[in-house]
Amino acid sequence: MFETASTITEKIINMEKEEKFVPARTMLVEDHPIFRVGIRAVLEQTPAISLIDEAGTGEEAVGKTDEKSLDIIIMDINIPIIDGIQATKIIKGRHPEIKILIFSAIEEPETVISAIKAGADGYIFKTDNPNELLNAIEKVMGGENYLSQRISNKLIPHLIGKKHESGEECEKKCEELTGREHEILSFVLEGKTSKEVSKILFLSVRTVETHRYNMMKKIGCSSTAEIFKYAIDNKLI
């Protein structure tokens, strides 16, 4: 269940009191006027965000990124001149510290994967709950990768169908993982819960969660979204 805008705002207010919170300097990249107005309204309802600029094309976004000090960019994909994925790749090449959250109507798994490969820190659909945008921004600004649950649900069957490497080849790419941890990684990518894995492997749930924790620690992931990104980046799927 997503946190409401009021809950997120309350958390941020508490952060502001405790840590002198500074709003994330944000740029919105969207070429459709109606969508831009709607997204702007959502962004402006929380003190976590300082919307300092907007762009209507990928080229304009790249140019403004070079001129301004930004923390995060909310990026559409279907934008003129340079699309959002190419713009993301260029911006990340020049300014890797800037977070980029893709906010798109495109739901095809191949597009999501392309965006992640280009360097996007998160991806949500325009048809997702508006509060998910605020939640995604909070997670991405906290250093996490973020994929909405609907995206994970679409990616799982796609990735299962695209697997093309054996466990032995996987071990060459992530040698620190044990055989059991490789198994857990595969099950996570298939969308299985620890309880489901425990039944398949005849292990206790606690044992599965321990293997999962160790696997995630070794590959530097703290969420399922980061596991997907790791697997895509290392061509494990």
Q: What is the chain-wise order of helices and strands?
A: HEHEHEHEHEHEHHHHHH
- What general form does the structure show? globular
For the terminal residues, how far apart are their CA atoms? 29 Å
Seen as an oligomer or otherwise, the chain set is single chain
How would you sum up this structure, described in words?
Helices cover 57% and strands 12% of the residues. It has 237 residues and is of the alpha/beta class. Helix 3 (58-67) runs parallel beside helix 4 (84-94), helix 9 (179-189) packs across helix 11 and helix 10 packs across helix 11 (205-219). A 6-stranded parallel sheet has the order 2-1-3-4-5-6, sandwiched between helices.
Give a quick precis of the structure.
The chain has 237 residues and is an alpha/beta fold. The protein has 12 helices and 6 strands. It has a 6-stranded parallel sheet, with helices on both faces.
Descriptive labels:
6 strands, six-stranded parallel sheet, single chain, alpha/beta, 237 residues
Q: What topology does this entry show?
A:
Elements (H helix, E strand, L loop, with lengths): L4 H15 L4 E6 L3 H11 L5 E7 L2 H10 L4 E4 L8 H11 L4 E6 L4 H10 L3 E4 L4 H12 L4 E2 L1 H14 L4 H7 L5 H11 L4 H8 L3 H15 L4 H10 L4
Parallel strand pairs: 1-2, 1-3, 3-4, 4-5, 5-6
